[in-house]
Design brief:
- It is a multi-pass membrane protein.
- Its main location: membrane.
- InterPro entries: NRAMP_fam.
- By secondary structure, this protein is mainly alpha-helical.
- It has one domain: Up-down Bundle (Amino acid/polyamine transporter I).
- Helix content is 79%, strand content 0%.
- It has 15 helices and no strands.
- Helix 4 packs across helix 9 and helix 7 packs across helix 13.
Length: 424
């Protein structure tokens, strides 16, 4: 009996150690999820559900699945080589890294502007200031966290915020299923499969679950995490898959919320950032109760604020490393800080130019992301099938097949979008 008790005790201890082992490695994957669960989820998924009901659920799931091999490249390559994807691009040829860096610079400025304006819009729920001034405050707060706290603080904050957002959103959707839909008498269901909606579809998929260059951030964050603790290949892949699964799950969850509460009501999201923020929080408060309005607003604000912080950190860290590799210079925290300041300043300039028009800005940024997606996808696929990787770490037949299907899918929609512009 004592032996049986001892065996069970050892088994429980072993399981506990394994759980702690994997939980300790969580970080880069959750940071990637935090970067993803911003405009693509809060805006695009919710808007897709509100305007088209459940019709686009399969599109969201499909784009998450078909982009998986290109996102997974970040964790897999770094876990296998101990180097970032940027090192891999350079090994393929200097031109590959230059191509990535050029496109990444444009994406950095545009994406920073988009998430900053969305954060400022959410902040208007609590502070009665102009969206431009709030955008400036958001950037200052983000830079303060990054410059003073660095990766360690970002890692800890993200886990707390992600947990709060996930729980509140799942609770809202669960309750929404029990609320009878309010169908406006004049409501006529629309099909998303019309030329007039191709722009929205492309924009939605551009940041779904995130721009593919985020795979490089995951790669760099993994290297940063390894400075504080050793992480095995198994841990790194588990961390990525966990974060990626959360982004896919919440993308459908936000679509469900928009569909259950807003679809058929005759109401549409306003292009104004201030009004959009109020409409979004109203979705939650209609389900969870008006008394939860400010609590949910605070959670949503923290969510998109964490996205802003991770976007600034990710793009700056990527551009800094690209510069370092291309110029053959040593790592420099001062240069990283300079990159953050430049990206933030240029992003703020774009926010000021759009004057609070949130949805038009986000649609442009997401469309730009989708048009460059095929390039980033190709770079990652080329790297994960190259001879620079040990054979056991290269993509096999299944991942190659999924990658080919993904690139065909992405390229097809790019061609459709270009065609829609031409015929108009």
């Amino acid at each position: 009996m004592e032996k049986l008790y001892s065996a069970n005790s050892n088994l429980n201890t072993s399981r506990l150690k394994r759980s702690r082992y994997f939980l300790a490695a969580l970080g880069p994957g959750l940071l990637m999820a935090a970067a993803a669960i911003g405009a693509s989820h809060l805006v695009s998924s919710t808007r897709a559900g509100a305007e088209f009901g459940w019709q686009l659920a399969w599109v969201i799931l499909a784009v998450n699945l078909l982009k998986y091999p290109f996102f997974a490249a970040g964790a897999r390559y770094t876990a296998a080589t101990g180097e970032s994807l940027l090192h891999g691009y350079l090994k393929q040829g200097r031109g590959y890294l230059l191509l990535f860096s050029g496109l990444n610079t444009l994406a950095a400025i545009a994406s920073t502007a988009g998430v900053t304006m969305l954060t400022a819009a959410m902040l208007t729920l609590f502070i009665p200031l102009s969206i431009d001034l709030l955008a400036f405050i958001v950037l200052i707060a983000s830079l303060t966290i990054l410059i003073l706290g660095h990766y360690a603080l970002l890692d800890k904050l993200t886990k707390i915020i992600m947990l709060a957002l996930t729980v509140s959103t799942l609770a809202a959707v669960a309750l929404a299923f029990n609320i009878p839909p309010v169908i406006h008498p004049d409501f006529i269901p629309q099909s998303p499969w019309q030329w007039a909606n191709i722009g929205f579809l492309v924009a939605m998929m551009g940041w779904m679950p995130a721009p593919i260059e985020v795979s490089v951030w995951n790669s760099l964050w993994l290297l940063e995490k390894q400075k504080s603790q050793p992480i095995s290949k198994k841990q790194a892949i588990f961390d990525f898959n966990f974060g990626y699964l959360i982004t896919a799950l919440l993308a459908v969850t936000f679509l469900a919320l928009g569909s259950l509460v807003m679809h058929g009501s005759g109401e549409q999201f306003s292009p104004s950032g201030v009004k959009f923020a109020s409409q979004l929080i109203t979705l939650y408060s209609q389900v969870l109760g008006e008394q939860t309005r400010y609590l949910i607003g605070a959670v949503a604000l923290l969510c998109i604020f964490s996205t802003t912080v991770t976007v600034i950190d990710g793009y700056s860290r990527t551009l800094n490393m690209s510069w370092q590799l291309l110029r053959k210079q040593q790592d420099s925290n001062r240069r990283l800080t300079t990159m953050m300041l430049i990206i933030s300043a240029l992003g703020l300039a774009i926010v000021l130019f759009f004057k609070g028009a949130l949805l038009p800005l986000l649609e442009i940024v997401m469309t730009l992301a989708f048009m460059t997606t095929i390039v980033f996808a190709w770079l990652n696929y080329k790297l994960m099938t190259s001879n620079s990787l040990p054979e056991q770490d290269r993509y096999g037949i299944k991942m190659k097949g999924l990658s080919a299907l993904g690139m065909f899918y992405l390229l097809s929609f790019v061609c459709l979008f270009i065609y829609s512009i031409v015929i108009q």
